[in-house]
Each structure stands twice: as C-alpha cells, then as structure tokens.
Amino acid sequence: MVRQVEIDFFRNEGYLVVGSILDDVRIGMLKALIDEQLERARSPETRTQWDLMEEAGGQAVFRLSRVMERHEAFQSVATDPLVAEYVRALVGPEAGVCVNRHNMMVVKAPYVGRQIDWHQDGANWGTAAIVSLMVFLEDAAPENGCLEIIPGAHRRGLWQAAASERVGLGLSVEDPEQAALIRQAVPVLCRAGDGVFFHCCLPHFSEANRSGRSRRSFTFAYIVPLDVQPTCPTGMAPVEIVPLPQ
Fold it and tell me: Phi and psi (nearest 5°) for 168?
C-alpha cells in the first residue's frame, strides 16, 4: 500500500524512488528479450523507425521506442500491479499509460551512451500533467549516467526552454536563474529493479556513460485522460492512452 508520506514526498520533491519493482528472475528474462531487440536494431536490414542509434552507421543502440508493442513482458512492466498502485496514488485513480510519450528503453551503452541535456518533459509535450516512471535493469550511478534531478523544481511549472540538440527543448545554462537551480542537482542512485517516478515539470539530466557497463532502463508515462490537452505542440501526435488493469 502506498503510504501518505510517499505521496507527500512526491508532491514536494517531484520524484519518488520505489524499490524492487522487478526481482532478479524477471530482470534476467527482460534482459534476454532486450538483447534480442538490440541485435535486430544493430542490423540495417532489421532496424525499424523505432530503433535509434547513438550515431549514424554505428553499432551502439541509444533507444528502443514503442517497447510496449514489442513484447507483452515489456508491457507488463508498465502495467505491473505495484506500478499501477503507485500511479493511481500519485497521478490519479483514472490514470492510464501514454502509448506515444516515452514508452521506451534507453540503453546507455558502455563508453558511448550519450548525455541527455537538462530538460523538462512537459516543455516538449505541451502538458504539465504527465508523470513518468523509469525502471532500471542495471544499477544506476554517476559513472554510468544515472538520472539527475533538481528536487522541488517542478513546483515552478514549465520554464522558458531553449533549443537542444539532444532533447528538442531543454534548459538554458546561459540563463542565470536556471543555471543556479542546476547547481542544486542531485543524482538519483538506484539498484537494478528499482523505479523512479518523476513529474514532467521536474528538470532532469543524465551524463554520458563513461563506464564499462550499460545502464538500461524502461521509461513509461502516465496521465489522467481528462488532463490531456486538446491541442499539441506542432508536429507532435495527440496523446494516446491505454487504461491500467484493475
């Protein structure tokens, strides 16, 4: 059962770490399935539009999108009973999974996994109502590019964003106010199987992976259907939602 102290922490800080969403057996099964997906993505003959490489012509995969459609085991992570319990407590009792926001596996391959610049997801999506969840298949620490956040900064809402090569719209380190907040950032250390919920107005970042181990993680997004905006940013499809199992 989700405790009120957890709900209060999420509302105040904009994020919440939930331990042991996945056990070791399930992690092993998911890794094997992901390895098959990565092998397909590395080959130009079997690569799809939903497979993004670290660099053109390279062999390292950056991201696998639309993971819920790839295997029921991936969908089961997004709709896990424990996850659903937290989603209903943190987002709302009618919340569902966003099929076309996040719904991905970020690989953070050893030595080449790219940096993700400071940004707020809501700035790119045109909404301040989505909550995301990262579920880690490997330990996440600063050396392999763990998530970094600015606690409580989501309460400021969406900031003025600047163009970023890596995230579309990101924060500006040239802006004195934003730069001052970025200096308050903290790393979110997680073990394999842990999850991190975070608000779409919470600024976040991850360093490049400079270690010899990957940092694979699922990321899913959740929203109450009534909170979906009637219009979307230019070029972005309307939010698609599937309900969580009861």
Answer: 85, -85
Q: Which amino acid, 180?
A: A
pTM confidence score: 0.94
Q: Which H or E element spans position 166?
A: none
CA atoms within 13 A on the CB side of 240: 8
Q: Which CATH number fits the domain 4-224, given the four candidates 2.60.120.620, 2.40.50.140, 2.160.10.10, 3.40.190.10?
A: 2.60.120.620
Give the Cα separation of 221 and 135 in Å (integer).
12
Among the listed residues 37, 35, 59, 58, the one whose alpha carbon sits nearest the alpha carbon of residue 48? 37
Per-residue model confidence as pLDDT tens digits over 138-177 = 999 999 999 999 999 999 988 887 777 777 777 878 888 8
Burial of 97 (0-12, 13-18, 19+ CB in 10 A): buried
